[in-house]
Amino acid sequence: MTPTKTTKTEVEMVIRNRKTVMKEGIMTMSGIGEPSVFHALVVIFLEFFAWGLLTMPIISVLNATFPDHTFLMNGLIMGIKGILSFLSAPLIGALSDVWGRKFFLLVTVFFTCVPIPLMTINTWWFFAMISISGVFAVIFSIVFAYVADVTTEAERSRAYGLVSATFAASMVISPALGAYLMDLYGEALVVAAATAVAVLDVFFIMVAVPESLPEKVRPSGWGPAISWEQADPFAALRKVGAERTVLMLCVAVFLSYLPEAGQYSCIFVYLKLVMGFGVVQVAIFIAIVGVLSIAVQVVLGFLMRSLGAKHTIMLGLLFEMLQLMWYGFGSRTWMMWAAGVLAALGSLTYPAISAYVSVNSRADRQGVVQGMVTGVRGLCNGLGPAMFGVIFYLFHVDLNEEHAVTGIDGKPQEKYVRLVPGPPFVLGALLVICALLVAAFLPEDGTVGSGRRAPADLKFEVERGRRVAGTLSPLMAPESAAL
């Protein structure tokens, strides 16, 4: 009997050692220097620079592929991608706590960029792969976890701001460059350039990015370390109704971010196909709104000190409501530019919400509430684009370039003849008005998440909230950067 026991023990040790070697081989791939925020910034910049180059080519390909249902298909594609991202984010976040950040940075960047070269090969497969890639479209979750690993609590807010600013900067530069290259050399060269940037990003992660997750905090085995509660995307949402202030905050986020997510998914297509914007105009529009959004973030601290978190949230919602109204009722080009300025001003809403949580939450509850807000926003990333696409379809606002209204000179007219050119934007404005009313009843200094919880539950939820934290207020939702 003794030899049998010894043999069984030896087999178990061999299996355990093989797992450990495989795991360490995945997570300790070579990197340059110590892990830092800089590594995360480069990864974010390169990925969204690649997709930003394709902003204008994708509009043309989308219209050519779905000429009769452009906005409907755009909404469905982005809706599927957003919902898949919402469902997969907690699981990938939990796995990154076990396998390490570097491996999942590589996986998310690779699979979200796989569709890029398909654009010149088969457009149907291109859009299908964009939808499916939503399973891995959680790059911000992994990047923010990476940043959390390499910064102290005092440094973290500034580092998160740098990540969001880097994302915005990549989207300021790349659409204009992509439009310029497309005008000179055609779509094929732009797709090749975007593919090259994506390959460079993958190569950078493999060679230069060091693992940030300390070995001592990793579980010894990944199987028992992950529970269904950690992987459940609705876990945070189920806790929303537990406390009145949290419920009100999440309702305000849902009502305001649902139309914003829908707007981000289609605004550039809308400007080109309905409002008659040219390729260069759309690129300049993106750049100006991006620069203004960054400027707004700079003055956020002053507004918070002057008005307080609650009134800053309400101010941001007011600007969002006005810009949605202008997009919905505007029929001239200058109105769209004015709405873009208001959109930049409205970008202070979600940093203000995060600040409200930070100011009015106990230290051990901030991750919990932030996780709930992030869960609501993730759900909106799937529902918003689908809602906008369906409403455009129901109101027959589904023009393509061949049917666009043209003037005597053959150029698109500045005015699209319709009482309400953008019905989804008007509906979105009404939802934001409801969000504004809800926000008005938020307590000035109420404690968010003051209920008492078990210490073990708190530790899990804080860590989960940190893992799934997304951008505070990007110029456009990452999932919509492709369309």
UniProtKB/TrEMBL annotation:
The record, for InterPro entries, names: MFS, MFS_dom, MFS_trans_sf, Sugar_transporter_CS, Tet-R_TetA/multi-R_MdtG-like
- Keywords, ordered alphabetically: Membrane, Transmembrane, Transmembrane helix, Transport
Q: Does the keyword Zinc-finger apply?
A: no
Which GO cellular component terms are attached? membrane
TM regions (residue ranges): 37-59, 71-91, 103-119, 125-147, 159-182, 188-209, 246-271, 277-300, 312-329, 335-357, 378-395, 425-443
List, in alphabetical order, the Gene Ontology terms for molecular function in this entry. Answer: transmembrane transporter activity
Compartments annotated for it: namely: Membrane
Membrane topology term:
Multi-pass membrane protein
| Domain of life the protein comes from | Eukaryota
Give all residue intervals belonging to the Major facilitator superfamily (MFS) profile domain. Answer: 36-446
This protein is called what? Hippocampus abundant transcript 1 protein
